[in-house]
Amino acid sequence: MPNALNFSGGPGALPDSVLAQTRDAIVALPETGLSVLGMSHRSAWFQSILDEAEQNLRHLLGLSSDYAVTFLQGGSSLQFAMIPMNFAAAGVAPPEYITSGYWSNRATSEAAKVVAARKIAWDGKSGGYRQLPALDSLDIARDAAYLHYVSNETVEGRQFPAIDRALPVPLIADMSSDFLSKPLDTTPYAMLYAHAQKNLGPAGVTVAVIRRDLLERIPDGLPAILDFRTHVTHGSNYNTPPVFAIYVLALVTRWMRADIGGLAAMQRINEQKARQLYATLDELGGAIHIHARQQWRSQMNVAFSFGDARLDDAFIESARERGIVGLEGHRSIGGLRASLYNAVTPEAVDSLCEALRAFSLERV
Ligand SMILES: *Cc1c(COP(=O)(O)O)cnc(C)c1O
To answer: Are residues 268 and 150 both part of a single domain?
Structure first.
C-alpha cells in the first residue's frame, strides 16, 4: 500500500482496498484469468462492469430513469466544449455561465469558442474569487439554453451549498471535485458531470448524467464522438472505452456502497475531516490565511497559506518528512492546498493537523 498520505488536488488518493484489488487485476482478474489491461471492451466481463458502475451510481444518487448515465473520455475539459456544441441549440437564448473561479473560467472561455454568444451570469473576478453568488438571485434569461456552474471550485477551495429547488432554465454542473462526497438531489439538474480522478478513480473516464429530454435538443451533424446521443445509444461502448479506468470506478463505487454505506455516511466522514482541518487552521490563526470566505469554505479542497511563500515551502518540506504529500497550491494561486477527497482517511487528516501544529510552534 502507499507509504505516504496523499492530499493531492487530483489525481488523488484511492481506498487501500481498491488499490489491492487493482494490483491483483493488473496481473489477472479473478473472473477471467486475464489482466484487466488486456480485457476486450466487447467481452461479457466488461459489459458486466459497465452495468455495475452504472447501477452503483444510480443507487448512490437515487437516480431516476429520466436520466441517462454515460462514461466518456477527454476529461471534464472536453465537456467544456461538448456541452455548448450539444445544448446551445438554435431557437433558444444564449447559455449563461457563472464564472466563480479557475475551472468555471475555463468552461466559460471554451464555450465562447463554440457558440456565437454566451452570457456571463455572474463574475467573481473583482472579488478575487473568494465568494460565490446565490444561484436563485441571478438574473437569468427565462429562455437561456442552460445555466452552467462549477459546484466546487477546486483551486480556490469554495463550494456552493446544495441546490434544493428547480431553476427556470436547464441547470448544468461540473461536479468534478465534489461528486459523490455527499448526498445529492439530482432533480434540479438537467446534466451533471465529473471526471474520475478526484473522487471516483484514476484519470481517463468522465461520468456524465444527462436528463433524457435534453438529448432532443442536440443538433444533427455533430461528429458522432462529440454527440451525447452516440454514447447513450451505444451504452458508453461506441469506440474503445477506457476499460481500466471504468473498472476502478466500479470498484470505488462498490466500496462506497458496501464499505462506506452510501452518501450520507460518506458525508459524515467528509464533514468531520473538513471540520477538523478548518478548526486547526482557525486555532493556529494569525499566521494562516484561508483563501475562501467562511461561508463558502469547501469541504473537499482547503486552500490556505502562511502568507509567505518561503514558509509555505518550508511547511511542504516538513510535511513531506512526516510522509504527507500533495500540499502544493494550484500553480494559478500558489500557497497550499489540502484536498480531502473521499478516500483521504480521518487518520491522514489527524496527521496533517499534527504537522501543522508542530510547524506553527517551531517556525511561525
Ligand atoms: C480538475 C478539474 C477539471 C479539469 O478536468 P480534466 O479532467 O483535467 O479536464 C475541471 N473541472 C473541475 C471542477 C476540476 O476540479
So the answer is: no
Q: How far is CA 26 from the centre of its chain?
A: 26
301 lines ligand 1 (CB under 6 A): no
Range of the domain at 194: 17-260
Q: What are the pLDDT digits (tens) for 302-359?
A: 999 999 999 999 999 999 999 999 999 999 999 999 999 999 999 999 999 999 999 9
- Decide if 106 is inside a domain: yes
Q: Is the CB of 270 under 6 A from ligand 1?
A: no
**How many CB atoms lie under 10 A from the CB of residue 311?**
18
Are residues 226 and 278 both part of a single domain? no
Cβ atoms of 70 and 231 within 8 Å: the answer is yes
> Phi, psi (5° rounding) for residue 344?
-75, 125
**Ligand 1: does its nearest atom lie under 6 Å from the Cβ of 108?**
no
Specify whether 189 is located in the same domain as 301: no
CA distance 247 to 22: 9
Q: What is the CA radius of gyration of the chain?
A: 21
Phi, psi dihedral angles at 118 (to 5 degrees):
-150, 150
Is the pTM here over 0.70, yes or no? yes
CA distances from residue 290 to 143, 305, 337 in whole angstroms, order as listed? 38, 7, 10
Residues designated catalytic: 103, 174, 198
* 90 and 196 housed in the same domain: yes
Same domain, 226 and 279: no
What amino acid is encoded at 342 in this protein?
A: N
98 lies in the same domain as 183: yes
Q: How far is 145 from 281, CA to CA, in rounded Å?
A: 42
